[in-house]
Every structure is written in structure tokens, then in C-alpha cells.
């Protein structure tokens, strides 16, 4: 049984929507499903407004979906610390807030919510304490794909909503119709959300020359420059539609999180990037390719390979090799067209595998639920200072 508590989640928006996307979803779920009181501190409200159009980009304090949103500024204003404090993705808490935590006289759980990784060391590091000189209790909390990790962010009714959406074709027609897109008979639907990517031209060449009609749906984002150059147009914006051969391209406006989920559910294949869309594509239960954020000294390849080893663990060798080749080409920028054609020979097997993977991750629990359980369990434990007393 969970304990009702107050939560402070701190989010520093870096250069994309992943950080705020994850923390906003987490905050809403803690309130809606676990009856927690949540205050989300955001340092970039303009980015938050893109995800929550009803929000204000200038309000110091506001409420949305029963979550309190506070503007986190350099001029820190004193605030009473919450019972649980989440430092999301290595952002640094205000020193004055940390001091207030230490001076509160209460047991406060301080969690460093880490980035998602499938590397084998994650299980061993998850939930490890980092003792602070001021007596605070800080722990590392790792989302992950295996038992012994923090799981993935997933609302309790997500798969039911997904299945209800798919079981009624009118839902797909209504969503795409709202963006002025008409479904082509027999077309395969693909969503594209990526960083700048040298693999795009070769892949589009193959789609345009293919025997099957493809509708490529591209939410506004950084990959549009590559697509525009391939089309030979100056720029692409929301509402633009182009056709070349068998390929129909449509640019969608920036979408809310619920709309983006539905877009993933519509499609037969999803190209995603970063962390937030990567997780949501897995819940869609469709084949996908992940454009991982490039890191210094090519550290991202280790993360990509680690996930792929887990993901393809029970996939037939031929399908595994074909899928790996496309993922490598997609992230390396070379040979994407040929790799795509080879992968399509295993389309049905990859589809079934994606659905199995979804069910496997459901069995691993969800991030919000595991966070609440961790706090409840921690609250019932004997404090270190008490355990050490005579």
C-alpha cells in the first residue's frame, strides 16, 4: 500500500523535449494513479508549453492536470522541500534547496533519476545509496528493461487505450484527417522523428522506388532539413505534402504527447529518437528504429548495442541480422536503403516480435509505480542514523 506524499521533480530542459517529456508524464501519472502531490520545477516554460498548450510561458506558478508547475529560475525563491525529491537526468538542485532539505528535521528521500540505458552495469547500480555529508539520503534510480531496474514509464491504461484506438479504423482516419492527410488505399504508414541524419536520402530513394505505396508522416523537428534537401525544396513546414514515386510525404505540426502516441499506434513502422519517443514506440508494439543521441567518443554505440542485444534476444538469427544492419546503417548514415530492403523480408516476424517485447516490458512493472513502492519501502526502513545508535 502506497503512502501519500509530496514530490518535487526538478527538470532542466537541455536541447530537446526528452527531459521535460519524461518528467511531465511522470508527474501526471504520480497524481492520477498514485494520488501523490506533485510539484514540477521547469527551467524552460516555453518548451513546456509546446507539450502542454494550455500552460503559460510566463507564470511563476500554475496548475495543469492537478500538477503544480513552478518556474525554476536562477533567482531561487525559498520553498518547503517535499517528502520525495527527484533530481531528473543529472540536473543540479539549487544549493539553498539542498540546505533546506538538510535543515528540515524530516526524513526526505532524494532520488537521482538517471537516463535510460540497457547496459549490463545498470542492474547493479540501480537503487544504490550515495551518502551525503549533510545526512541526506540520496539514491540512484535507473529506468530499465530488466527486472532489478526502475522499469519504463507507462500509464496503467495505456495499452487498453492503444488497443481501443486500433480496433476502430475511424480513430486513425480522424487523427490523420485532422492534419489534412488522406489515407491511401493499401499504403504502409511510417512515422519519422529523428535528429539530422545522413541515412535519410538513401532510405527515401528506396521508399520512392518501391512497389508499395508509403505514407511518411513527419512531425516538425530537426530531420526536416534532410527531407527538404532530398525533395529539392527550400524548407518544409507543417501542412506540407509532397509525392515522389510511391512515396507520399506529409509534415505534421508539433504534437501533444497524446497525439504523438496515437500517431505511433497508427503506423506500421516508427523511426524515433532520444529517449521519450523511443519508449513510447516500444509501447506501440510495432517494429522501430532508434536514432540514438550521438555522444563524445562514440559512447552512444555501447548503449545502442546493449539495448539491441536485449531486444533481439529471442528473435530468429536471420531477422536479428537484418534488423541490426538497418539500425547500424540508420545511426551510421551509410547503406540505409539496402538494409531497409533486406529487413522488409522479415516484416511479419518483426511485427510479432515487437508485440512480444511490449508484453515482456509490461511484466517488468512501470517507473512511476516502482518509484512509489521504493519510497514506501524506504519510509518503513530503519534510518541509517538510528540503526547505528546503541
Automatic annotation (TrEMBL):
> Which controlled-vocabulary keywords does the entry list?
Elongation factor, Glycosyltransferase, Protein biosynthesis, Transferase
Annotated InterPro entries: EarP
Catalytic activity reported: dTDP-beta-L-rhamnose + L-arginyl-[protein] = N(omega)-(alpha-L-rhamnosyl)-L-arginyl-[protein] + dTDP + H(+)
> Main role?
Protein-arginine rhamnosyltransferase that catalyzes the transfer of a single rhamnose to elongation factor P (EF-P) on 'Lys-32', a modification required for EF-P-dependent rescue of polyproline stalled ribosomes.
Protein name in UniProt: Protein-arginine rhamnosyltransferase
* UniProt-recorded Gene Ontology molecular function terms: translation elongation factor activity
Taxonomic lineage is: Bacteria, Pseudomonadati, Pseudomonadota, Gammaproteobacteria, Pseudomonadales
Q: Per its UniProt entry, which superkingdom is the organism in?
A: Bacteria
Q: Which family does it belong to?
A: Belongs to the glycosyltransferase 104 family.
Amino acid at each position: 500500500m502506497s503512502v501519500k506524499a509530496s514530490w518535487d521533480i526538478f527538470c532542466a530542459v537541455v536541447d530537446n523535449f526528452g527531459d521535460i517529456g519524461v518528467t511531465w508524464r511522470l508527474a501526471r501519472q504520480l497524481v492520477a494513479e498514485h494520488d501523490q502531490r506533485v510539484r514540477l520545477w521547469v527551467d524552460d516554460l516555453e518548451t513546456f508549453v509546446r507539450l502542454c498548450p494550455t500552460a503559460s510561458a510566463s507564470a511563476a506558478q500554475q496548475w495543469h492536470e492537478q500538477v503544480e508547475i513552478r518556474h525554476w529560475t536562477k533567482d531561487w525563491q525559498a520553498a518547503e522541500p517535499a517528502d520525495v525529491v527527484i533530481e531528473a537526468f543529472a540536473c543540479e538542485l539549487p544549493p539553498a534547496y539542498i540546505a533546506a532539505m538538510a535543515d528540515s528535521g524530516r526524513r526526505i528521500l532524494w532520488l537521482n533519476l538517471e537516463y535510460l540505458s540497457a547496459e549490463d552495469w545498470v542492474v547493479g547500480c540501480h537503487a544504490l545509496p550515495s551518502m551525503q555529508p549533510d545526512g541526506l539520503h540520496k539514491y540512484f534510480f535507473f529506468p530499465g528493461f530488466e527486472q532489478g531496474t526502475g522499469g519504463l514509464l507507462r500509464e496503467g491504461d495505456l495499452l487498453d487505450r492503444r488497443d481501443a484506438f486500433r480496433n476502430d479504423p475511424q480513430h486513425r482516419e480522424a487523427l490523420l484527417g485532422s492534419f489534412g492527410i488522406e489515407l491511401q488505399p493499401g499504403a504502409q504508414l511510417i512515422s519519422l522523428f529523428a535528429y539530422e541524419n545522413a541515412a535519410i536520402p538513401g532510405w527515401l530513394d528506396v521508399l520512392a522506388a518501391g512497389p508499395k505505396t508509403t505514407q511518411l508522416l513527419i512531425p516538425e523537428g530537426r530531420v526536416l532539413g534532410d527531407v527538404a534537401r532530398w525533395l529539392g525544396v527550400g524548407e518544409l513546414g507543417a501542412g506540407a505534402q509532397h509525392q515522389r514515386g510511391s512515396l507520399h510525404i506529409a509534415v505534421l505540426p508539433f504534437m501533444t504527447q497524446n497525439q504523438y502516441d496515437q500517431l505511433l499506434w497508427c503506423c506500421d513502422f516508427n523511426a524515433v529518437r532520444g529517449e521519450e519517443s523511443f519508449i513510447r514506440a516500444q509501447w506501440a508494439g510495432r517494429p522501430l528504429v532508434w536514432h540514438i543521441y550521438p555522444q563524445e567518443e562514440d559512447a552512444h554505440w555501447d548503449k545502442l548495442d546493449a539495448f539491441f542485444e536485449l531486444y533481439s534476444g529471442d528473435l530468429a538469427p536471420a531477422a536479428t541480422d537484418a534488423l541490426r544492419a538497418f539500425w547500424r546503417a540508420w545511426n551510421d548514415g551509410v547503406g540505409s536503403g539496402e538494409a531497409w530492403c533486406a529487413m522488409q523480408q522479415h516484416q511479419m516476424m518483426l511485427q510479432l516480435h515487437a508485440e512480444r517485447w511490449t508484453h515482456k516490458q509490461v511484466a517488468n512493472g512501470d517507473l512511476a509505480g516502482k518509484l512509489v513502492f521504493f519510497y514506501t519501502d524506504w519510509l518503513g526502513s530503519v534510518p541509517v542514523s538510528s540503526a547505528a545508535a546503541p
